[in-house]
Amino acid sequence: MSNKQSTLLSEQNSLLQFDKENVWHPYTSMSEPLPSYLVESAQGVMINLASGEQLIDGMSSWWSVLHGYNHPILNKALQDQAAKMSHVMFGGLTHQSAITLCEKLIRLTPQGLDKVFLSDSGSVSVEVAMKMALQYQHAVAANNKAPLTKTKLLTVKNGYHGDTFAAMSVCDPVTGMHQIFEQVLMQHYFAPAPSIKFGETWSTDETIELTKLFANHHNEIAAFIIEPIVQGTGGMRFYHPEYLKACRQLCDQYDVLMIVDEIATGFGRTGKLFACEWADISPDIMCLGKTLTGGYITLAATLCSSHIAKTISKGEAGCFMHGPTFMGNALACAVANASIDLLIKNDWQAQVKNIENTLTTLLNPLIHHQRVKDVRVLGSIGAVECKQAVNVANIQKRFVELGVWIRPFGKLIYIIPPLIITTEQLTCLAGAIATVLAEDECFSS
Ligand SMILES: *Cc1c(COP(=O)(O)O)cnc(C)c1O
Fold first, then answer.
1. Is there a contact between 293 and 338 (Cβ–Cβ < 8 Å)?
2. Residue 225's beta-bridge partner residues?
3. Atom of ligand 1 nearest to the CA of 289
4. 151 in a structural domain
5. Any ligand 1 atom below 6 A from CB of 264
6. What pLDDT, on a 0 to 100 scale, did the predictor assign at position 176?
7. Residue 8, Cβ neighbours under 10 Å: how many?
């Protein structure tokens, strides 16, 4: 090793040492953290580690990257915007990037979503959605000179809507950290998770429990919230579109607002531009995030109907009670516009279909592996559910050695790659999964 190389190596080691001792990483211990890998750069579908390895990205940086890293068009959108202004307050000021983005979102999302509230992250957009629903019901009750009773939410088990408090209160009650925060979390109603899978035969029995909850508690329920078609963090479970259709119908019947959390599914991930389209429904409120800026900067949006916006605005406060400092951030809006334009221009339907076909061919045979319980593919999402939990540190190390970036959780090894990934790169990802399935240390606790 040359002097220069060894200096670099010791610099990297001291960075990683500081990181390990002082920097929180998501969902890992601060005293005995899972290892972190130092990234130097990323380009296209490749993540380049400081240590020299180049990894094919199977995760899209938590499902957010669409067109790859370091994309010239997205970079230029950012640079052009930065040269004008990176940010101005959204109170009393507005700008073209935000206006153009909102116009696009209204045009592309299902019919009836005409008002856009921009915010910082997915969790915040869920907070905003829940607050909108509650403020709407407050205004409706006041208008009818009736007491406010609709103050709770209804959702399904196994859901995930974010890590802030209101969002957490509608996450799965068992896996969603409810025990620790029980005393401070708002209490809501939970229906069983949808159990009939996407592609299976539909039965109306599936909604019996849900219907009962609506029938018995609709006077208390402001809104129903659900991830459409894919329960993501809850284990990449794909459920039947008829279920979503039934939810819409029940919300209408019982005068409950429908909030659809498209943060993970939006912008083509499931094979439709928005997963709601599988059921041909429009929600009253929709949350978008993750892929909104093509994975460049945090940005989220909550869309609602004109009726909701009007009712809130006629209510006691006269306005919606929320306003983040970085609302409508110009850099984020500019790159979101460029990303959405690219999505349309790149023929995302063909890109997603190609990923779906390739993943189906490559992953389906893994069902015969003794460690595998289920294999499922929908759009650009492929999941291999194992019979036992993975050892994250060991499996991660092996994936890095195999030249791929795949981050499993629990019993689930899944990939959700950038849409520009090639068939060869997908083959490497699937090959790496097949390899680790045969290795005991990747599953030992
Ligand atoms: C990731 C996610 C969120 C939370 O978004 P953050 O940007 O992490 O706050 C909410 N809902 C769903 C469905 C998600 O997948």
1. no
2. 155, 259
3. 7
4. yes
5. yes
6. 66
7. 15
